[in-house]
Amino acid sequence: MQFKHPEILYALVLLVIPIIVHLFQLRRYKKTPFTNVKMLQKIVQHSRKSQRLKKYLILATRMLAFTFLIIAFAQPFIAKNTTKKPSNIFIYLDNSYSMQAKGVGGELLKFNASQLIENAGALNTPVSLITNSDNFKNEPLENLKNELTTIQYSAKSIDLSSELLTESNKKYNSSKTLNEKILISDFQNNTDLNKIDFTNVNFTFSVIKTQPTTQNNIYIDSIYTTSKTPLEFTVNIVVKSLKNTNEKIPISLYNEDKLLGKSTVNFNDSTSEITQFNIDNLVDFNGKVFITEKWLPFDNEFYFSISKKAKTKVLTIGKKADFLAKIYNPKEFDFKHSELKFINYNQILEQQLVILNELSTIPNSLQTVLEEYLNNGGKLAVIPSNDIDLTSYNSLLNEISNTKISNNFTTETKITKIHIAHPLLKGVFEKEIRNFQYPFTQKIYQLASKNNPVLSTQNKIPFVSEHNNLFWIASPLNIETSNFINSPLVVPVFYNMAMQQNNTTNLYYKIDNNLKINISSSLKTNEVLKIQHYLSDEKFIPLQINSPNYVTLNLKNLNLKQGWYKVWKNEEIVATIALNYNRNESDLTYLDIENQLKNNENVSFYNNFESFTSNFFENQKINWLFKWFLALSILFLLLEIVLLKYFKI
Question: How far apart (Å, rounded) are the C-alpha atoms in residues 114 and 108?
Answer without folding.
Answer: 10
